[in-house]
Write a structure and sequence with these properties.
Two copies of one chain form a homodimer.
Chain A lengths: L3 E2 L9 H12 L16 H18 L5 E6 L3 H12 L5 E6 L2 H10 L4 E7 L21 E4 L1 E2 L4 E2 L10 E4 L16 E5 L10 E6 L16 H6 L9 H16 L2 H22 L3 E2 L11 E6 L5 H10 L2 E2 L10 E4 L6 H17 L1
Parallel strand pairs in A: 1-13, 3-4, 3-5, 5-8, 8-9
Antiparallel strand pairs in A: 2-10, 6-7, 9-10, 11-12, 12-14
Helix pairs in contact in A: 1-6, 2-6, 3-4, 6-7, 7-9
Chain lengths: 355, 355
């Protein structure tokens, strides 16, 4: 049976990427070797790394005041690494408490300096995005989570602030056009919209680095990684290669304009189906509903288990809500075809009609 | 032309591992999905993680006083993470300065507490292993590099010390039988003897944790990783899977006894060839010569380039010495077949005969 993969991450990748990745494991680029056994300082791999870094910048339309790093670890590592690089013990950084991941970032930052929560949507179970809050001009930076994978909210306008803006874009990177130059740091674990698990992309405006007194361990120091061309130590070779393949697929498919169009089409279909069927409800403020992760519930919660069972039976993978939230979560990343959302909404309709 | 892969890391993996890894990218375990798109909290992956952790313990014959973690990052991350977890600012840790990697570990440790160098072979270009040195009983631990990939030395006897012993075994893990219970922490980047780049294995005696005053960022805290069953955040799924495949291959091939027998056979052939041909010389103390990485030179250094050219022409990959050392380096990890060493030594002999 055909599976429809709505996993929240690691998640669906383009078929062509999977095929090229499998081929590279057998033999990489006529090298006579597998991608898993090539040296990371040979031209075979340094070419991959350089192309991937350049493509990130190209897709984001950023100039040379930015650098791009592929780092070990997921976004969770950045929760620590960002304040370690940017925040001295006697300084304050501003954070938006946007959900599960943002609150983890706040906890890690508080070990390095003062983490000031300037906006929180915790009062309403993280069902909306704060707007119009103010940030002290003395704050070293403002950190937001641009898309909340667990709760299903998304920023559609970047906060208008005078301090450097930092965004965890793990679950919506490369899913839409935006002015990326508004951000001083953009970071993302690769395993949702841009590759497999095991690598982190970090885009940094170089001028914000080198301004703290704290000594930084080499392996955590963004400046040292920039000097080393993102090859300070053995990188996660295969994960970087899969990211490159995915970035090339994005570009060849029409770039961020096409990713955005497709994502609007898919998410509109899903949300309009939810709203049209009284058996389902979505608690997220309409203007803040994520195009990546739709989180919704059955009005009669005794129907949740039968609905999830039906989904499983029909090959719909990964639609159970996050463990602390419950309900249903449908993730619609770049590689998810429209036909999967059509199949899912058809299933919702037939379930609604059957009860 | 057949390639002989002597890469120092990432390096050769067993053919069967490469084949199984490529298959898992097409479809993993009859899931209808690729290994790259499965959820890390589904039984598909939690089973992989548990089996890999258990196999590490089984191969090392360790009891439940130890735990096994698969962590993001390479060994370089551990240079920082170990003192962060074990060394308070007013405490001292003892380090052996065994080569390039050990000296990097010392630098990172000195940011967290006092890093005391108790032995160094720098005086003779890291061509031997120190023995019989003493370690203050007040030291929190002693750190050694059990095999020096760059310089070509290896410990054949663990230092006899009363403080907890920590070893970076990145380049000789699972290559021989030993009493692993002498160590309190063993760590290794996977990309030499146990898998692909992008994951780190850490074996830890639990009783040494939880004894410092410093607050540790969640993502760096070994105890938190143990509590989370090595699934605190999205792990490098594919790299963990390749490590599992490699561990299974080691076990099925006869375990550490067979890895050791094979490694003695391969390295003896190479070193005896070096010693028998006056054109080559190895500067490493005979009793400390690494079975993993043989580092040697041509007596007439104008012959180095022609020899390396010949190697390239004959499909011998990765035999150029490390950039700061020069000469020739031949890595003979677990997956390297004897026939590759035979082919290489035949080439050495014909080169010697030709000049």
């Amino acid at each position: 049976m055909k599976k429809h993969n709505f996993n929240s991450g690691p998640s669906i990748l383009p078929q062509i990427v999977m095929q090229q990745a499998a081929e590279a494991i057998v033999e990489f680029n006529n090298s006579g070797l597998s991608i898993l056994e090539i040296g990371h300082r040979t031209p075979f791999f340094t070419g991959v790394m350089e192309e991937a870094r350049a493509l990130v910048k190209e897709l984001m339309q950023l100039d040379d005041s930015y650098d791009v790093l592929f780092l070990h670890g997921g976004a969770t590592t950045q929760f620590m690494q960002i304040p370690m690089n940017l925040l001295d013990a006697d300084e304050t950084a501003a954070y938006c408490d946007d959900g599960v991941w943002g609150s983890k970032a706040i906890k890690e930052a508080s070990l390095f300096g003062k983490a000031l929560v300037v906006a929180s949507s915790k009062d309403k179970g993280y069902t909306y995005i704060n707007k119009g809050f103010t940030v002290p001009t003395t704050a070293k930076y403002l950190h937001i989570t641009s898309n909340n994978t667990v709760e299903g909210t998304q920023y559609f306008t970047a906060p208008d602030v005078s301090v450097p803006l930092i965004a965890d874009m793990s679950s919506d990177i490369f899913s839409r056009q935006m002015d990326f130059s508004k951000y001083s740091i953009i970071y993302a674990g690769a395993q949702k919209n841009m590759g497999a698990a095991g690598v982190n992309v970090l885009v940094v405006k170089k001028e914000i680095l080198g301004k703290i007194k704290r000594p930084i361990p080499n392996i955590m120091d963004y400046q040292k990684h920039i000097e080393a061309g993102s090859l300070m130590n053995t990188p996660p070779v295969f994960a970087v290669y899969v990211a490159l393949l995915t970035l090339k697929w994005i570009k060849a498919s029409g770039g961020l304009a096409e990713m955005e169009r497709s994502s609007i089409e898919k998410s509109s279909l899903l949300y309009s189906t939810i709203d049209s069927l009284p058996v389902f409800n979505c608690k997220i403020a309409v203007e803040d509903r994520s195009r990546m992760n739709a989180v919704f519930f059955l009005n009669d919660n005794t129907l949740e288990a039968p609905f999830l069972d039906l989904c499983k039976k029909e090959g719909m993978v990964g639609v159970k809500g996050y463990r602390t939230v419950g309900g249903v979560r449908v993730s619609m990343y770049n590689a998810l075809p429209l036909e999967s959302v059509v199949a899912f909404t058809d299933l919702m309709k037939s379930f609604a009609a059957s009860i």
